[in-house]
Amino acid sequence: ICDTLGARPASGLKELMDDFLRTRYGHSLLERSERYAALIPGAPGDAEGAAIQGDGWALVGDAGRFVDPLTREGIFYAMLSGEILAEALAAGRPESYAATWRRSHEAEFLWAARHAGSFFAPRFLERLVALCGSSRIVARVMSDLLAGRQPYTTLKRRLILNAPRIGAEVAARRLRLSRDN
């Protein structure tokens, strides 16, 4: 379960998960299970211009909130922000770090933060998962998105260009399923 901090109490999320597991797998799984939770930082929609660097200090990775607001991917961005800072330090221009980060990634993060509410809507997620199961192309696009290889700025274009092939995949899968049943 993933939700925005403060949108619902942790106990409410636990109840949702317990209900899901109980309905799907029965009581015995809950009795044998350990629960684990973690807070995943993310860029809020109003993070534009937030300080990531000052006199003698700089933030990288989670500390700088360099976690994709939609996919929650953070390791890639932690390494990337560390690399950008290291390059700035090696060049003797540590003050260039924040500007370089913003120029290369801030627009993506802000776009994602603005769209996080609709992305995490249960109906959208259910449809997205079903579509990934019906289309290898969509699954590949989502894999690239989760791995940080697919920017949000070109996501719509990539999906539109592949729409005819995606439609054919989904239609072929539905035909196979209807023949099998």
- On the 0-100 scale, what is the average pLDDT? 85
Order of helices and strands: HHEEHHHHH
Beta-strand residue percentage: under 5%
- Let me know the largest β-sheet: 2 strands, antiparallel
Task: Name the poorly predicted regions.
Answer: none
How many helices? Answer: 7
Structural class computed from helices and strand pairing: mainly alpha
User: Percent helix among the residues?
Assistant: 55-70%
Global shape? flat
Q: How many strand segments? A: 2
Distance between the termini: 33 Å
Alpha-carbon Rg, integer: 20 Å
Biggest sheet: strands side by side, in what order? 1-2
Care to describe what's here?
It is a single chain. A hairpin with a 2-residue loop joins strand 1 and strand 2 (57-58). The chain is flat and about 65 Å long. The two termini are 33 Å apart. Helix 3 runs antiparallel to helix 4, helix 5 (122-134) packs across helix 6 (136-146) and helix 6 runs antiparallel to helix 7. With 181 residues, the chain is an all-alpha fold. Helices cover 63% and strands 2% of the residues. The chain has helices at residues 10-25, 27-32, 75-90, 97-119, 122-134, 136-146, 152-180; strands at residues 53-54, 57-58. It contains seven helices and two strands. The longest helix is centred in the C-terminal third of the chain and has 29 residues, at 152-180. A two-stranded antiparallel sheet has the order 1-2.
